[in-house]
Amino acid sequence: MNRELLPIIDFSLLLEKTSIFTRILFATIFLCVFCTLNSIAQLADGHNKFFGNILRGLKNNGMTPDPLFTTYWNQATPENAGKHGLYETSRDVYEWDALDEMYAFCQANNIPFKQHTFLFWCCGADADWLLSLSDAQIRAEMEEWIIHFFNRYPNTAYVEVVNEPFQSPPPAKIRNALGGDTNYAWVRWVYDKARQHAPASCELWINENNILKGGGRVNSYKNLINLLKADGNIDAVGMQGHWLENVSASTIQNTLNQLDDLNVPLYITEYEVHIANDNNQRDVWAAQFPVMWEHPAVKGVTLWGYKQGEMWRSNGYLVRTNGSERPAMAWIRNYLSGGGSGGGSLQLQAEDHSDSQGVATYSNFIGSCDNNDWIKFNNVNLGNGYQTLNVRYARGTSSNRRVEVRLGSTSGTKIGEIQTVNTGGWSSYTSQSVTLTGGNGNKTIYFVFKGGDAVGNFDWFEFSGQSGSSIKVFAAGKSNTETMRLLINGNVVKTWNNVGGNASTRSFVAHTYNHNTSVTSSQIRVQLTNDDGGTSKDLRVDKIEVDGTTYQTEASSTYSTGTWNSSNGCGPGYKQSEWLHCNGYFQYSCGNCRVITDESGKNATEAVVKKQDSRPGNVYIYPNPAENQLNVEVYSQEKEEVSIEITDILSRRMEIMSGQSSNQTIQINTSGLPEGLYLVKIKGDQTEVIRRLVVKK
Questions:
Q1: Are 604 and 625 in contact, with CB atoms under 8 Å apart?
Q2: Which residue, 133, 303, 339, 452, is most buried by CB atoms nearer than 10 A?
Q3: Dihedral (C-alpha) 463, 464, 465, 470: value to the nearest 10 degrees?
Q4: Helices and strands in the chain, H and E counts
Q5: Where in the sequence numbering do the catalytic residues fall?
Q6: In 3D, which of 391, 352, 275, 317 has the Cα closest to residue 1?
Q7: Which of 120, 299, 295 lies closest to 203, judged by CA?
Q8: Is the pLDDT assigned to residue 654 strictly greater than 80?
């Protein structure tokens, strides 16, 4: 379906010579003029990771207005305005209007702002005036640039501190001034300064090109990142998505698995698919993007543009100049809303086919469909299988004709067949349904026209009626008063009170839940929520069954956050036990789960046991990760009232309360917070700190 745009007002001449404050005012006016567009859900709405894009504009020309941005994207990166050589064009001469407007835009719309970048020596973005300075002056100017940035943009969520240290390193003079090449000292110097001056809430990233293609650069990248980890100066790793059009999904998957060993969040940056042919572009998106988006270590994806005529790589656009969406964007919308990965319906526009034989393709339908002609669609994700196919077509004759639905080839497995009838004319469209008899997962689908000439004109083919998944949890309580929850993708879908059975004798009760979309075991958690702190309420889970397949709780791949043992109490780990002794969960088929530590690097449970240091100025939050309750202890010279605010990564306030320092532990109920990363802001007359908090369920 095409998206119709409201008329766009061109303020460019009006803004050309106005002040930054006037331009910000006009940016605000844009938000109001186009507020009706914001009612359209952002593409990543409902997902626990962001899907972002770039903001365009340069120097004192200001930000390029984009009234559509907030209707699609929930994270923003300046394309060029934040690069040192384009921001500080000569020594102590700043052209910051564009970056000011981008930052203000993100603040006004609660969009996380990512700075790109502090050091990048390429493509006219380098601050080449540094080359005329002494080593000491280079260091002073680099540090001044970092300080200046954070003073001006204090709520920056992420910074790509160094961009392309391998592909586009600075000249030897710059590298030597910053420490030289040994053990990447020049890179580490920049991260030391970034960590020193960045707010506690800002994540420091690294970003590099040609990583997702695999090869030797991956190991070099990992070596550098491990050095930055040892320095305590890296929070996340970015991999650019340029030049991947001919890279297989399996290569991308293998590379992400290699980088997952770093145990830091991964992000896909600067992704686009630079292909002029609409259908070929969509097919590459359909093959690559699910591998990136569904990888458990990947926490977000940022594209490098989306509008025709406003792309560095010109054929990567997703929205045409007239506002209509290319087939790839339609696929993205369907996939992220659930249609392409199980659930809802999946509609294939006939004219957007991947390939064809014999048919005539028009702007919004196909025709001239005769005997043995066909169209095909690559990489169609059928999830757990659909039950029904609906076809919208028109036909002006009554002779018997049909459409066969086949998997893999024109002679592959037939999963359905439509008999086309006279609809009253070649422009009189109707819908007709047929029951499907198979097909799941990623498939190439052929629609083969049979019976003679003039089979019909076809508008779309829609799959619907996912068969979903049946889940059984075989569990028993110790006291028969235990409360058990079933979570899918971190969301509670079912709660059972008074679980029943007899845990001591292993008499388990089968608790059944039917989900409306396909589910795998790795998406499932079984949780105990009402442990009393003693030994009377424990939950024992024998196994789960997903669509008839059994997964044993004591398997080595089952991860637990509530099983007690002598080594770390109820701390997280692979305990190979059927018991939940504390509030916590089992997560199944979780071979890549990691034990998350608190800020001291200790296991969170061990950190709680140790006596806190009560010297003034120390602040503690524990346990971290937290589940249902967070404890906050603040030690100050004198008693003070402190306010405690918990916000998510989009700066949305989740909890706020107050308490006294030095004489009490402030307890915060976190049971209502979804899993994820939060910031705890603690503020008083003598105290002002920010701590990162992980909430696990």
A1: yes
A2: 303
A3: 60
A4: 13, 38
A5: 164, 270
A6: 352
A7: 299
A8: no
Residue-wise pLDDT tens digits, 205-230:
999 999 999 988 999 999 999 999 99
Distance from the Cα of residue 661 to its chain's centroid: 38
Residue 247 contacts by C-beta under 8 Å, 6 or more apart in sequence? 212, 213, 288
Residue 565 to residue 583: CA distance in whole angstroms: 14
Percent of the chain that is helix, strand, coil (3-state, to 5): 25, 35, 45
Please state, in angstroms and rounded to a whole number, the distance separating the CA atoms of residues 142 and 388: 62
What digits encode the pLDDT tens for the residues 431-458? 888 889 888 777 899 999 999 999 999 9
Residues in the chain, overall count:
697
Angle between helices 97-108 and 20-33 (to 10 degrees): 40
Q: Alpha-carbon distance 490 to 519, whole Å?
A: 13
Average pLDDT over residues 17-37: 40
CA distances 61 to 96, 104, 189, 212, Å, are: 9, 15, 32, 35
Distances (CA, A) of 385 to 82, 414, 517, 518: 46, 14, 9, 8
What gap in Å lies between CA 112 and CA 53, rounded to an integer?
A: 11
Q: Are 86 and 125 in contact (CB under 8 A)?
A: yes
Instruction: Give strand pairing partners of 375.
Output: 356, 447
Q: Could you write out the DSSP letters of every residue in 81-102?
A: TTSHHHHEEETTEE--HHHHHH
* 521: helix, strand or coil: helix
* pLDDT tens track for 104-117: 999 998 899 999 99
Rounded Cα gap, residues 650 and 655, in angstroms: 14
Task: Indicate the residue type of 133.
Answer: L
Is the pLDDT at 168 greater than 80? The verdict is yes
State the pLDDT at residue 657.
62
**Cα 473-475-479 angle, rounded to 5 deg:** 150
